[in-house]
Design goal:
With about 500 residues, the chain is mainly beta.
């Protein structure tokens, strides 16, 4: 067996393990050396998404929205559903009563999709709502997205908490967490597999790594979730922390739930992988306080140039032109009301040498006792396509930014979960600007809808969605970024018949 064939097997196996399954085309050949044609983009065949436990509050109300954009070449079969973590036993020794009783009851889907292009919804109430494990196959797999949105009317972390359910992985960075007085932050870990995962959690403050051994070797049982309170991992009170989650064995999904006694709370999603330049899109125009938190995991200090991509072009914020990030230490910058009544996105670029950095923004809206918090992590570009679910007729804002070059973008509002007509519009985003999109909700909308963003020409585009909800006088809100959905995968065509590999 030659080296090309071995590489092809390894690549296809890796794709199956990480992103799903893609069809491999293997035309018949008479023999000779295997040659590889240009890779074809094929729809993924299987996708996993995991949703953390939404809240421990008895008055929490959580909505789940599942959506898959229509993708060519997927065929007519498939399914997508989310079930409670722990809802599917893998122990063959369990008796028939367990198998037909508690197991079946727990495994009943919380959300089950009916057709691509139309949102499916579900809900849970109270503090006993479990984490969810989701799988989409066939025509539902490419671009599958699930939004978890929770309203908590009172108590620590009151407000609107939203998070995109995420695929399992082996490493996560969360700049912007805290163990300060008044903050209660948890790292939620969800294991989708039939074997236990072992996870290490490291905390980095302004002076470096926080001393702790409690975060080493945390076991997450099969098909279950584990919330880890950060203040139990280290005694230091740090206003700004970077959390590093690494998996020794297995894989998990991870997200940080950040709850504040006075400033509400939200989910802090994992930041994009460390990079020299970062984009943090969609700071609300009425933000009253914005804080940048950054960390470099490399071996060299990082010096970053800060620019705000406003509706009229890039602006250097006075007093915060640059940020120095020491190796292994979390740095922060109080940017105040940086947007000054206009939407914007923060652009981070190296002033000299490019050093990998992770970063996130903590955003506060409102004043006095009526303040609420959300987070914007640095994110990947939209790429070919990205989708965000659970948009409502009122209180939805889509922000697009093109940091390096003008771009044309097609935006589609899907049918509603209860009815309505889809709408598509194309927008031009000027280089170095951020634009809040005036996107009409679907005509005759009933329920919630999805927004799908597809750049058609020009430079890279970054996006986020702000969702607002009034809870009495509280300006409750949450922000989700829209990275590429990775709904297709590149699979090379081999000219040699690979059926010999079955021997």
């Amino acid at each position: 067996m030659n080296r090309t064939t071995l590489s092809l097997i390894a690549g296809t196996t890796a794709l199956a393990a990480v992103t799903g399954f893609a069809v491999l085309t293997t035309p018949d050949a008479s023999g000779g050396d295997t040659t590889t044609k240009a890779a074809a983009q094929l729809p993924v065949q299987r996708t996993s998404l995991l949703c953390p436990q939404p809240s421990t509050s008895d008055i929490a109300e959580t909505a789940y929205t599942s959506f898959t954009p229509v993708t060519a070449g997927t065929g007519g079969e498939g399914s997508a559903e989310l079930v409670a973590a722990g809802g599917e036993s893998t122990d063959p020794a369990k008796d028939d009563k367990d198998a037909k009783g508690d197991k079946d009851k727990a495994a009943k889907p919380v959300v089950e999709a009916k057709e691509p292009g139309k949102p499916a919804t579900g809900s849970t109430d109270g503090g006993d709502s479990p984490a969810l494990i989701g799988t989409a196959e066939g025509k539902f797999a490419p671009g599958w997205t699930v939004q978890e949105t929770t309203e908590v009317a009172a108590g620590t972390g009151r407000g609107l908490l939203g998070v995109n359910c995420t695929a399992p992985d082996t490493e996560f960075w969360f700049p912007g967490a805290s163990t300060a007085a008044g903050r209660t932050d948890y790292v939620h870990l969800v294991n989708p597999d039939d074997s236990a995962a072992v996870v290490d959690i490291e905390l980095y403050g302004k002076d470096g790594a926080l001393k702790s051994t409690v975060g080493d070797g945390i076991t997450v049982q099969p098909r279950s979730s584990e919330p880890v309170l950060l203040s139990t991992l280290a005694t230091a009170k740090e206003a700004d922390l970077t959390v590093h989650v690494s998996v020794r064995s297995g894989r998990v999904a991870a997200a940080v739930q950040a709850l504040d006694d006075k400033l509400g709370g939200d989910w802090l999603a994992a930041a994009a992988d460390p990079a020299g330049s970062l984009v943090l899109p969609g700071i609300p125009k009425d933000a009253t306080s914005v804080t940048l938190v950054a960390f470099t995991p490399g071996e060299t200090d990082a010096d970053l140039k800060l620019r705000l991509a406003s509706p009229n072009g890039p602006i250097t914020p006075a007093g915060n032109e640059t940020l120095h990030v020491k190796v292994g230490m979390t740095a922060s910058a109080d940017l105040g009301d940086i947007t000054r009544g206009e939407e914007g996105s923060l652009l981070l670029t190296p002033t000299d040498q490019s050093v990998p950095v992770v970063a996130a923004l903590r955003v506060v809206r409102g004043k006095g006792d009526n303040r609420e918090t959300a987070f914007i992590p640095a994110t990947r570009p939209v790429g070919a396509r990205a989708t965000v679910a659970d948009n409502r007729a009122k209180g939805t804002t889509l922000a697009l930014t093109a940091p390096t070059g003008a771009a044309k973008v097609k935006v589609t509002a899907s049918v509603g979960s209860g009815g309505g007509e889809p709408t598509t519009k194309t927008f031009t985003i000027k280089a170095g600007t951020t634009q809040n999109i005036d996107m009409p909700a679907p005509a005759g909308l009933k329920g919630t809808y999805a927004l799908t963003v597809e750049p058609t020409s020009g430079g890279p585009v970054y996006a986020s969605r702000t969702l607002e909800s009034k809870l009495d006088t509280l300006p409750a809100f949450t922000i989700q970024t829209l990275p590429d959905d990775r709904g297709t995968v590149a699979v090379p065509e081999a000219e040699q018949d690979l059926s010999i590999l079955q021997r």
